[in-house]
Backbone:
């Protein structure tokens, strides 16, 4: 009986192995969906639409972007984790949803390392702390001094668990500030209230903040990058301000379910490598305020694992973990 079971398992395994090349040859046969776990606008949406446009042309099928908001970036990522592992549902994986969520929530319905695999991480964005153009704060130090003297008087925007919210909370913790968090579903809603003066500050993705900074609608005080941004060399980093020893550069990439057949994963990784190497795409990232990346898969996976350890510790230390 035991031998027959072993023979049956071996036969099943052989069938899967034989079928995999066939899957690679026939896939894709229909439309592919990329889940962006955020509202339109911002880093998730920008990268999702860039990938969708390129993949649609190279794969010869429609590739659509589905924006799924809720609980910061958690709900959209959970939806992706529950999809069929057939290569037809992919998800934008980034620092907020794949890393921050592990520290922000005690329990998750997905495990970033076990449930997903990296297809490619071609770009990184920093964050820019902005205030209304007519704000009393001309420098980050002025804002910090005011916040220290007036606990919980200043409020900031950002969806729970997003890079915007987590970054602000950690800087506040390191600087000894007490700020009030106001949750939003997306950047557009935050800017409506920031520009009207209903909230005081927003630590937004630099790509989204850039046109408003350059248009004079908001004032930038600091950036979260390790070094000053080439397109905003006049804006100091958080570290340069002397307020906190902190940097935050959020990577964005494309992920598939870990159970996706290897031939499909390999095909998608090859397509993502083409996107990563494409000079037009790299120029687009730079124009959008991003930093193009060119890393081996092993280096991407190491960055992912290292960030999981680093950010989970910082989020818990800042008292931001919740149920």
Residues:
């Amino acid at each position: 009986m035991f031998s027959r079971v072993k023979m049956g398992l071996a036969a099943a395994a052989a069938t899967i192995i034989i079928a995999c090349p066939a899957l690679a040859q026939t896939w894709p046969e229909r439309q592919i969906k990329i889940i962006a776990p955020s509202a339109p606008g911002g880093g998730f949406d920008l990268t999702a639409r860039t990938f969708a446009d390129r993949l649609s042309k190279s794969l010869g099928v429609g590739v659509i972007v589905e924006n799924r908001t809720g609980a910061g970036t958690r709900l959209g990522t959970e939806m992706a984790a529950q999809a069929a592992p057939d290569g037809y549902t992919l998800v934008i994986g980034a620092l907020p949803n794949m890393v921050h969520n592990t520290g922000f929530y005690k329990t998750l319905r997905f495990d970033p390392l076990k449930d997903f695999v990296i297809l490619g991480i071609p770009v990184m964005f920093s964050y820019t702390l902005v205030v209304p153009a007519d704000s009393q704060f001309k420098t980050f130090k002025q804002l910090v001094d005011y916040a220290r003297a007036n606990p919980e008087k200043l409020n900031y925007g950002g969806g729970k668990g997003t890079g915007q919210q987590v970054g602000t909370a950690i800087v506040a913790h390191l600087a000894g500030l007490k700020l009030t968090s106001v949750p939003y579903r997306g950047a557009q809603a935050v800017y409506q209230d920031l520009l009207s003066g209903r909230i005081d500050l927003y630590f937004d993705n630099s790509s989204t903040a850039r046109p408003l900074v350059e248009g004079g609608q908001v004032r930038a005080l600091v950036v979260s990058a390790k070094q000053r941004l080439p397109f905003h060399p006049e804006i100091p980093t958080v570290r340069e301000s002397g307020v906190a020893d902190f940097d935050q550069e959020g990577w964005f990439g494309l992920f598939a379910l870990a159970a996706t057949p290897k031939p499909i994963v390999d095909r998608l990784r090859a397509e993502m490598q083409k996107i990563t190497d494409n000079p037009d795409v790299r120029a687009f990232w730079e124009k959008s305020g991003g930093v193009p990346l060119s890393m081996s898969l092993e280096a991407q996976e190491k960055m992912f694992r290292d960030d999981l350890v680093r950010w989970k510790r910082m989020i818990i230390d800042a008292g931001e973990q919740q149920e």
Remarks:
- The longest strand covers residues 116-132.
- The longest helix spans residues 2-26.
